[in-house]
Amino acid sequence: MNIILLSGGSGQRLWPLSNSIRSKQFIKLFKNDSDEYESMVQRVYHQIKAVDKSASIMVATSRSQVSAIKNQLGEQVSICIEPCRRDTFPAIALAVANLFYEKRLGGEEAVVICPVDPYVDHTYYEAVNRLGELAAKGDANITLMGIEPSYPSEKYGYIIPDTGENISRVKEFKEKPTEKAAREYISKGALWNAGVFALKVGYLMEIAHKMLVFTDYQDLLSKYDKLPKISFDYAVVEKEDRIQVMRYAGAWKDVGTWNMMAEVMADRTKGNVTLDNTCDNTNVINELDIPILCMGCKDMVIAASSDGILVADKEQSSYMKPYVEKMGMEAMYAEKSWGTYNVIDVQDSFMTIKVLLNAGHRMKYHSHKRRDEVWTIVAGEGTVVLDGESREVSAGDVIKIEHGHKHTIVARTTLNVIEVQIGEDIDVKDKEIFDEELHL
Amino acid sequence: MNIILLSGGSGQRLWPLSNSIRSKQFIKLFKNDSDEYESMVQRVYHQIKAVDKSASIMVATSRSQVSAIKNQLGEQVSICIEPCRRDTFPAIALAVANLFYEKRLGGEEAVVICPVDPYVDHTYYEAVNRLGELAAKGDANITLMGIEPSYPSEKYGYIIPDTGENISRVKEFKEKPTEKAAREYISKGALWNAGVFALKVGYLMEIAHKMLVFTDYQDLLSKYDKLPKISFDYAVVEKEDRIQVMRYAGAWKDVGTWNMMAEVMADRTKGNVTLDNTCDNTNVINELDIPILCMGCKDMVIAASSDGILVADKEQSSYMKPYVEKMGMEAMYAEKSWGTYNVIDVQDSFMTIKVLLNAGHRMKYHSHKRRDEVWTIVAGEGTVVLDGESREVSAGDVIKIEHGHKHTIVARTTLNVIEVQIGEDIDVKDKEIFDEELHL
Q1: pLDDT attached to residue B336
Q2: Interface test with A, best of B311, B381, B414 (most A CBs within 10 A)
Q3: Which of A93, A101, A352, B76 has the fewest CB neighbours in a 10 Å radius?
Q4: Is the sign of the CA dihedral B235, B238, B239, B242 positive or negative?
Q5: What share of chain B is helix, strand, coil (3-state, %, to 5)?
Q6: How would you list the strands of the sheet with A333-336, edge to edge?
Q7: Which residues of A touch B329 (CB under 8 A)?
């Protein structure tokens, strides 16, 4: 099976664990068979591989997610990076063009496109696999997955099939309806549109070449920022008559809010948390080093990270988006390709950051215009490069980097550094990269 | 009026704002006339001075509270330090001996002894003043304040007076009763024993000299750790027949729990806090730099400091003590005579601390056996002394202090330092003081 996982989203609804840098699919609240925490993207990857060991998986995403994806899935995972945000049609066309022109997948091959974030069991990916087989057979140009609705939701689009059979032609699509309309659709056998569909590579390439002028993947990539913002529905689905839908009746959950996440997370609490015996139906996630004590909490979700602390009634937590937007903080925690950084203190003219570099990794070679930095190596061993000069460092060593000076650090073992930034105008964007000058 | 304020307590019931170092009376949740936050100890001090400008106030406390008291009340406040913990009789005898032998207060002078932590208005300290006058008159050897009970509490001892008059002889004392017994006492005109009493200095010195062998204050102080642990009730009250009580009918609140503190704190929230419009009867105190978002919280108290995070139903929060004891963390925040320190990150072999030194102040000259330290000066100016050598420092300077080396820092202006401690066995007790060697 060929599968393109769409990994997007800025994840304000799972604040403070998701932020502008860390999307919800990277939060580790599930567990794998070895009882280790894993994220949604790791879970999905393992689920697909369990159904089809030889499945070829490509993750289509934005640049900001690349580090997290590589950290969580490993360097060998296939990633298609959208250089900037267009709409769904250019994004899907880019990923399929990558398969066709770069990975040399034949035009007759089917590919399944699906979002990375539903919480499902293995039967779902068996259905995804079957969707690919149906597309390859060619009875229709597009084969959708339709989820059997469990309640008249106003949050999803609906697919109305011609018949009640397992596989049926699609009669029509309905946008997110009112609850009343949803009941009516469901009485007619309507299904939720989960955004999962399969088609042949050649079919999509033909449409792409008609609508976008390009020669191959590299050409499309270079023109990406000038492509029109067109949705996949508008460009493809609405113009196509040969569409079929396959029913899926298994469990399917959208874990886009804390209320839903609380239902499926592996443990009721994670991190340093104490609940007294009067707490009830309460989930607590603590990423901070200090303890959380909960007493008499009913139907609540509590989440703490270096970005902030949420204390919410479960139902009410679904409405957090405007509040999170208003707080508009910069992310205090980020996964990088080389490790993690964690802002531990912010003041007007100085900021303290805990940096963890994974063994064998390094930061980019860079400099800052408006801030000085002091690195205190607190654990591990590595090499610091400062203005072209290398120096071996280990726990206890201190390196002072004045503004304007190029620097990087290479971890030989896992390396912990406390970085103190000093300056009147500290800004993540104050960074120039000189990687090409670095010769290690 | 001569007044001894008893300032004790480790304050586990207001965790995480109170801890083993910071007692509840130092938490700033009230406001003064200039709309600035003030603590209970500051509030009480101002209230006494408002009733009697020339009141002579002595704070009787333990060594661990001295820094916080001086920071909050100023260097000129009179403090009597208990060298170690004995019971209430030695503590009160020590403070009164200080007044008699050191401050040369006459034996016929009255002194009022009261705890530092009730939340009251100015009429209370008018009553305290009157209590002193009654003691000076000499109609009884001990004059107690009796609080008119507002409900049959099981938390307080009761005083049963002879008559219902404003001032009456005491018939008997009752220990903390059951609710049923409390109702019965109240029906007989019983009053709450608030631990406030007045007596003549000479009267107490006579009893003290009978029970404890000492010549003067300095002698008592030097023998303090060998004194018997005797309560004031056992040593004095139970043996005394000439005891009277004065009724007090004004407002009196014991703010020993979050539930009570929430009723009297100046603002419903303090710090970076957002409440959505479905929150109700909820108080939030945030001493961290990250935001707290509360949604749908009803009847709750939420408090966050570098020691931890409490999320509690108000009623339930009164039962926190055993949970806090079990967590048994070391304090992450402390007020020192020279400023504050704030632990911002703790790992196995390293710890990061944000230090604020007030202008003109310094740490003690000291060294550590088992940890190295790195100081990064992030704001302000001062002088570092390392093994006897002085060096001027300002923002951007870095000082590396290996274990075994003596060091201190003197703040010329307000000085901010990020201190990174590195070592396998970091412990607050790993500290040797060499202040006598320092010549600035």
Answers
A1: 81
A2: B311
A3: B76
A4: positive
A5: 25, 35, 35
A6: A333-336, A339-346, A350-357, A415-422, A372-379, A398-401
A7: 290-291
Q: What global pTM score does this model have?
A: 0.81
* For chain A, counts of helices (H) and of strands (E): 10, 30
CA dihedral A4, A10, A14, A17 (to 10 degrees): 100
- How many helices (H) and strands (E) are present in chain B, helices listed first? 10, 30
Structure-block tokens of residue B393? 């420092």
Those residues with Cβ within 8 angstroms of residue A202's Cβ, 6 or more apart along the chain or in another chain: A100, A106, A107, A108
Report yes or no: B359 at the A interface, CB cutoff 8 Å: no
- The bridge status of strand A381-386 relative to strand A389-394 is antiparallel
The residue of chain A nearest to residue B333, with distances taken between CA atoms, is A290
Beta strand residue intervals within B175-240, DSSP E: 191-200
CA distance B100 to B102: 6
Task: Tell me if A339 sits within 8 A of A328, measured CB to CB.
Answer: no
Question: Phi and psi (nearest 5°) for B56?
Answer: -100, 115
Per-residue confidence (pLDDT) for residue A10, from 0 to 100 = 65
Query: Tokens for B80?
Result: 């009597």
How far is A278 from A283, CA to CA, in rounded Å? 13
The structure tokens listed for A119 are 């919480």
Query: Region A279-293: what's the mean pLDDT?
Result: 95
Record: contact B293-A344, CB cut-off 8 A: no
Q: Can you name the residues that pair with A169 across neighbouring β-strands? A: A244
By 3-state DSSP, what share of chain A in percent is helix, strand and coil, each rounded to 5? 25, 35, 35
Q: How many CB atoms lie within 10 A of CB B376?
A: 28
Cβ of B296 and A306 within 8 Å? no
CA distance A301 to chain B (A): 10
Predicted pLDDT at B10: 65
DSSP structural state of residue A187: H
B70 touches B285 (CB < 8 A): no
> Taking 80 as the threshold, does the pLDDT of residue A327 lie above it?
no
CB A132 within 8 A of CB A1: yes
Query: What pLDDT is stored for residue B54 in this prediction?
Result: 93
CB A14 within 8 A of CB A122: no
Compute, in degrees rounded to 10, the torsion defined by CA atoms A143, A144, A145, A151: -150
Strands A56-62 and A78-82: parallel
